[in-house]
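Worked problem 6 (solution included).
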Amino acid sequence: MSFRAIYAAPLALVTLVFAACGGNEPQPTSPTGPQGTATAPATTAAVAPTAPAAAVTAFRDAKGKDAQMAYMQNQVQGRMGKAFQAHDGKRYADFSCKTCHGPNYVEPKAFLPKLTMKGGNLTAFAEKPEVSKFMAEKIVPEMAAAMGEKPYDPATHQGFGCGGCHAIEMK
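Solution. The predicted structure is:
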C-alpha cells in the first residue's frame, strides 16, 4: 500500500485550503440584497429574474479566493471548531483559521505536526494512541464531510485522510 494511495489529498484541496484563510478582509454586505449582494436600483423597465447561483457543496468547487474563504468560514471553521472543542474545550477554546493555518496563514501541511509513516503504518498510532484515535475517528470524517469529500476508505484507498492536512514523512 503506497503513501500516495492512502494519504494523498486532492491537489486542489491543498492549494485551496492554503488560500482559504488568507486574511481578515470583511465581506461586502448590503441589507437590501440576498447574501450580502447589492441590489440594482428600481427601474420602470421589466427585468427578467436571474437564477440563484448554484450552492457550493464542496470546497474544490469554490472558485476564487473570496468564495474559498467564505466556504471555509461557513462550512469548515465552525464545524471543526465544535469537533475539536468537544475533545478538548480548553485547548481549542479559541479555534480559528490560525488553529490549522498558523499565525502566518500558511498551508496546514506547513504548520501542523508532521506525521511519520514507517512500515506502511503511521507511527503516531503507537506514539500517541489517544490523539491518533480521536483524529482518525472524529476529525478525519468530520473534515472530509466539511470539505465535501469522502473520508479515507482503506478498502479502496480513496478519500480524505491524514495527508489532507498533515505532511507525512516516509521512513
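Discussion: The chain has a mean pLDDT of 77.
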